[in-house]
Design a protein that fits this description.
five-stranded antiparallel β-sheet; alpha/beta; single chain; Alpha-Beta Plaits; eight-stranded mixed β-sheet; 12 helices; Rossmann fold; elongated
């Protein structure tokens, strides 16, 4: 869906960015402050939003200097706004829609105010314009940064910020990996206070481009009053409050927010792709497990269970399957595919792996794994 990572020059700094295919308009997604553009599209529950946004135009996203695979740098408001300019210039793009979220609103607002002729529209998702010390009650910015730094790289910040997003251990691990690839805890601790000090309220009356501000009603981390304040300060801005608690509008549930963006940019209600897919639900267990466990003893049985789970998980990773649950000698998972041929290939590969399982044991004690793969049409779970 997206190009190989490219680099634009912001002065002497290289800014990493990727784009989707050409479209009716350019849309720059000024992604959350800490990202890695190499792995960002692979995050669970983001692919559906990305596909929907590419139906509106060419989607462009990038890593700000100091994060991901861009060059290291100390963040300033001007530097971050200039990164948007650098990416558009490198693409030869004359103008673009800016979609800002969370802490990337300040640089987006500065770009829109400075280059109105290059800003087709500004879309603000869970934005705020004032510094952190004015947005916190009962906590200090230093204390909040310390707590966030202590949990950085675990995925828990994503969970805390997006309580409506489905969550399990697999999803947590994916977000945790992305955090670690976006910035180390030390870089996060250095950059976060600098970003939190940015205040663009005085700038907002000079933003003279079509602006849409979307905010979730029950967002506890960035309450709606901050989104309303932005809309009140930008002449002619449209403010829409949506049900929900998430900071990120690009994870589940994202469709209502996307419909507002599409209506704002095109003047028409967009068709959201059907979220039903062909899925195979995989169940595995070991035949006659109680007797076999008694024969080989607890230690060897535990080792066999670990080997069984490792085989299944390696193939799930290979074929983009998702582990649903595991307990004792059984495991359940889901395989998504667009065609029967791919599902058959995945099934055959899993059978081959299982045919060698437990081969170090004699025939009497060798475990006999059993695989069951019923096929069904179901709501998309990974989007």
């Amino acid at each position: 869906m997206f190009s190989e990572t490219r680099y634009a020059l912001n002065g002497d700094l290289r800014v990493a960015y990727r784009t989707s295919h050409e479209g009716e308009r350019d849309i720059v997604f000024v992604a959350p402050p800490f990202t890695n553009c190499e792995v960002f599209p692979e995050l669970p529950y983001i692919q559906g939003w990305l596909e929907a946004m590419t139906s509106l135009g060419r989607l462009i996203y990038f890593d700000q200097p100091g994060t991901g695979v861009s060059d290291p740098a100390t963040p300033t408001l001007e530097l971050r706004a200039d990164s948007i300019t650098a990416v558009l210039d490198d693409l030869g793009s004359g103008e673009a829609v800016l979609v800002a979220i969370d802490g990337t609103f300040p640089e987006s607002a500065l770009f829109a105010a400075t280059y109105p002729s290059r800003t087709t529209a500004l879309v603000v998702l869970e934005g705020y314009a004032d510094p952190l010390f004015e947005r916190t009650e009962g906590s200090t910015p230093e204390g909040l940064t310390a707590v966030a730094t202590a949990t950085w790289g675990t995925g828990e910040i994503a969970h805390l910020a997006n309580p409506d997003m489905p969550w399990n251990e697999e999803i947590r691990a994916s977000w945790a990996r992305h955090e670690r690839l976006a910035a180390s805890p030390g870089i996060f601790a250095h950059m976060r206070p600098l970003l939190d000090d940015m205040d663009v309220r005085a700038l907002l009356p000079t933003v003279r481009v079509p602006t849409l501000v979307l905010h979730h009603t029950d967002d506890a981390m960035i309450p709606p009053k901050f989104g309303r304040d932005i809309a009140d300060r930008i002449p002619g801005a449209k403010y829409v409050e949506l049900p929900g608690r998430n900071v990120f509008h690009f994870v589940e549930p994202w469709r209502q927010s996307f419909q507002e963006i599409a209506q704002f940019l095109t003047g028409q209600q967009a068709d959201v792709a059907d979220d039903r897919v062909l899925a195979t639900v995989l169940f595995t267990d070991i035949v006659d497990s109680t007797r076999r466990a008694a024969q080989i003893g607890d230690r060897d049985w535990r080792a066999l269970l670990d080997a069984h789970d490792a085989i299944i998980r390696s193939q799930l990773a290979r074929f983009r399957g998702r582990e649903v649950n595991t307990s004792g000698d059984w495991l359940s998972a889901q395989l998504i595919s667009s065609g029967r041929k791919c599902l058959c290939t995945r099934w055959q590969r899993l059978r081959e792996e299982h045919s060698t399982f437990g081969s170090s044991h004699d025939t009497e004690t060798r475990p006999a794994p059993r695989l069951t793969l019923p096929q069904c049409s179901r709501k998309r779970a990974m989007r």
